[in-house]
Amino acid sequence: MKRLSVMMILLFCVGFAYAQKGKVTQASSYFTSGKLDQAKKMIDEAIQHEACVNFDKAYFVKGQIYQAIYESQIPDYKKLDPNALNVAWEAYQKVIELDVKGKYTKKLATQYKNLIIDFTNKGVEYYEVEDFANALASFERVLEIENSPILTQEAPAKIDTVVIFNAGVAAQRAGDFVKAEKFYKETLKYDYESARAYAMLSNALKEQGKTEEAVKYLHEGYELYPDNSYMLVELINYYLLGGEPEKAETYLDAAIKQDPKNASFYRAKGTLYEKMEQPEKAADMYKQALELDPTDFYAQYNLGNIELTKVINFHKQVIDIIDVNEYNKGMGKVFSGYEAVIPYFERALELNPTEKNTISTLKELYFKLRDKKPEYMKKYEEMQAKMGQAE
User: Fold this and answer.
1) Tell me: the pLDDT tens digits for 140-159?
2) Which of 72, 207, 240, 372 could in theory staple to 248 by disulfide, Cβ–Cβ 3.0 to 4.6 A?
3) Closest listed residue to residue 248, CA positions, set 210, 212, 204, 218
4) 3 state SS of 72
5) pTM of the entire structure?
6) Rounded distance between C-alpha atoms, residue 39 and residue 24, angstroms
7) What is the pLDDT of residues 88-98, one digit of tens each?
8) Rounded to 10 degrees, what is the CA torsion of 39, 42, 43, 46?
9) Average pLDDT in the 363-382 region?
10) Model pLDDT, residue 51
11) Are the C-beta atoms of 342 and 362 separated by less than 8 Å?
12) How far apart are CA 86 and CA 136, in angstroms?
């Protein structure tokens, strides 16, 4: 009687195990007929049972179902699991672990080819919403899949230069400059988007404090791609913002030659001449920038600042004049000079009505001239009110 009971228990366990494996088959049937909600429910139930914990087919079916959920165009299926693609990937990894005889290698290869497309699309989705860390993880997964033994048994690993470059961009945007450096160097190795890769690699190196290496790559890139505007801009910015601004002139001249109607290059050259203490040349560049783009606030403001500095310097000289008549004559010129620069800043304020420095400068100029014309006192009060609004 006791032996019969044990036999019955064993038969029940075997029957229950077969029932659970039967659910895997049923889940596969639902998947084939496109009923992904029922397929997901069935495989989730089956795979939790100990009979399926080490059942390679269960994980393969789970991978198929979850991959299909991610790929589905039906919203109700799509929202069954927002992490479906990663669940599918993990299921396939479990298949590889359990499938010691390699029964699923060819089937996995088919799924993997689709996973490359899926994770590429997922990376783009993340990038478009500025989730750069997950975009990077998705692009890295693509590269991992492409180099997997599952696919390289059929053919050598594909060199996916687009994904390698995009991984570098995503890494840079995510602030992972070490990985950005790695992917950009790999991009250069395969000569893809080389001009941009040189410039962006330089930036990634600079962010890590590798300044000498960063400059080396900038110059290498410029020698190879002298007509590339991206490279030129990076070199201009490097020298213009660094400790050797005079070296930016060569690259600014090249940029202007390449794009003579780009106002920003003339403005940048104006900034360069200001740093080199050549205000007349700077003013000429700002004027040229404004001829090309009358809405360039910075060129307008900087030009006004140069003219104002001339008046301020002249004012300092007049203050030291001892002769009363000469002093009064000089102060007359000073106030005329202050009045002459007002239109520069009024135009700047039109271009950027909330810019604090412009408001503050106009306020001071109107106050200085308040006794010359009554309207200046009124304008001073207007600027005073604007300052309060801007704070």
Assistant:
1) 999 999 999 989 887 787 89
2) 240
3) 218
4) coil
5) 0.72
6) 9
7) 999 999 999 99
8) -170
9) 91
10) 58
11) yes
12) 14
